[in-house]
Amino acid sequence: MKIYMLNPPFVENFVRCGRWQGAAARSGGLDYPKWLAYATGLLETEHAVKLVDAPASQLHTADIINDVKQFQPDLVVVETNFSSLGNDIGVTQKLKEACGATTVMVGPPTARFPEKILGNGGVDILALYEYDFTLLDVARAVGRGLPLKNVHGISYKENGQIAHNPIREYTTSEDLDRIPFVSSVYKRHLNIKDYYLSQTLYPEVQIFTGRGCPFHCTFCSWPENLMGRKYRSRTADNIVDEFEYICQNLPEVKEIFIEDDTYTINKNLVLDVCRKIKERKLDITWSCNARATLDYSTLQEMKSAGCRLLIVGYESGNDEILKTIRKGVGTQQMRAFTRDAKRAKLMIHGDFIIGLPGETNETAEQTLKFIRELKPNILQVAVATPIPGTKFYDWAKENGYLLVDNLEESIDQSGYQKCILSYPDFTKVDIEHYVNRALKEYYLNPSFVPVALSNILRRHGLHELKIMLMSAKVFLEYLGAEKRQAIRSV
């Protein structure tokens, strides 16, 4: 059968498959449609599949309707996120009207709002949580005219009624080794030069080596709405096989980014991957998300195997907030880790959040001070956004701190994050002020010059400079838009 996989049109540079509510990055970056791509690779083992990324290709709904009419799929799969849900339901309905195919919606909101989504005439089936193998079962059932009642992990409409099947068990490590390399899906379906991350060399590819996060940060969406807390991983051989595939088949790629929430949780796996990279003499640069718990020896091994950068979720400079959000790592450990990472000559992309439970002017000032102390090579500061399904969302809603009932109001017309929280002693205005102040005071301060120079004076210095200039251009445009908005509101 023929299957059409769609990351639907919305605002420019919109990232649906990120860890937040779906938003455009201030840096101008654009993620691959990672989860759709993994599902595409699995479905291609049995079906004819077309993967279309509308934001990356700058396609509008009319373009997609024409493409669908030409492809004539039997099944249309549409990805969604909380902030684009209404738009995505509308696009799905138009596609169903255009081609009459069975429609499936995937993505975090499906686990939280099945009745709302299926109450619309355009969506036939929801594939909940982790959905690659679920879609394979759906395709088999639809293609063979079998009843959907035996497919685990879906909600669907039947005779005008909404049915909820048992939730599907999460994948195993063995399952992950069975899924085709996502990099091969990118090569067949996408233009890798359409994608850009502010923290990686360009062009890059994004892969997963494992899924599931056993930690319990109260604000994190993916473990609750997508891939669960059960940690499972590919084997070291399978991971390095994909590295080798990229070297041989995508030679223009400058860096591999490992998207796992918890790649560094299994130190033995990390070391095994490093050893095999060196044994195969692969000349590849890679980076990953890392928890601030790695020891110096492991960091050295990662560097020697081609690791360039670590994205680290520091979140806050206040230990009470870190305890409240169940981060499991304190500021002292973060300081020691950062010193060791820099000593190993690894770059640090520091992630911080303003507006978490317990935030005050005092704690926000502590976070700004902590940022200046750590001096990350790249800084990201986000507005705290409670995502449905998380403990943070439940707490904010129960206490009346949420300013909106619909997360589609959590982004502005350009797709940038808006603050939807306000506390009695730390308001929406305070949160937005500290986010913008943190970024401006860090990047526009002369003290950042030595950091910027250290970024450039590396092996890939010209590429480091290129991505820095690309990010700076979009960031300055964002600041200009912010200034114009402030003038209009006076």
UniProtKB/TrEMBL annotation:
Keywords on record: Iron, Iron-sulfur, Metal-binding, S-adenosyl-L-methionine
Signal peptide stretch: none
SMART domains, alphabetized: Elp3 (SM00729)
Molecular function (Gene Ontology), one example: 4 iron, 4 sulfur cluster binding
Gene Ontology CC terms, in alphabetical order: cytosol
Highest rank taxon of the organism: Archaea
UniProt xrefs under Pfam families: Radical_SAM
UniProt cofactor(s): [4Fe-4S] cluster
Start and end residues of each Radical SAM core domain: 195-414
PANTHER family for the chain: ANAEROBIC MAGNESIUM-PROTOPORPHYRIN IX MONOMETHYL ESTER CYCLASE-RELATED, SLR0320 PROTEIN
Entry protein name: B12-binding domain-containing radical SAM protein
Organism: Methanoculleus submarinus
